[in-house]
Write a structure and sequence with these properties.
Blueprint lengths: L2 H14 L5 H13 L3 H11 L2 E8 L2 E8 L4 E8 L4 E9 L8 E6 L1 H9 L3 E8 L4 E8 L3 E10 L3
Antiparallel strand pairs: 1-2, 1-8, 2-3, 3-4, 4-5, 5-6, 6-7, 7-8
Amino acid sequence: MPLVVRFLLLAVVSSSGAWISPAFVVQSAQLERAGGGAVRSLLARMVADEVQHFRGSIYGVSASVALNLNTRHAEISLRGAPLGGTLVGSGWLKAEQAKAYSGGVVLDPDFAKKLERRFISIKEASLDKETNTVTVVVIVPIFGRNVIVLKRVEGP
């Protein structure tokens, strides 16, 4: 990949606050070798991805979520003494409906294992664009089924 394209990718990613995966870098290199405007279209898709950040807390645990509205993929960070520190992972909505912003949640297997060790599970999530909130249904020890409301914040 030419140096100019790499710097352009880095500039776009760091200015949008988005997370870039190694798969994206490999895909962009493959598209560049294919020729044409493939890299430009990939960059356009990446810039079009809108990532919003949400925060909230419950029972001494703070939750931060970076939600990609196009892919419905979320990077999740949970912090607090009840967890024994910080847990970081990812999750996404089940593919029940293509443009749905609510429903069951699928977690990255490593993240799910970390939560299971603490007897915690994330069952459902819902985005309300009008109120700029994400509502998450969780099951926690002692307290059972709970709802946590995360409010939109600017930046990570």
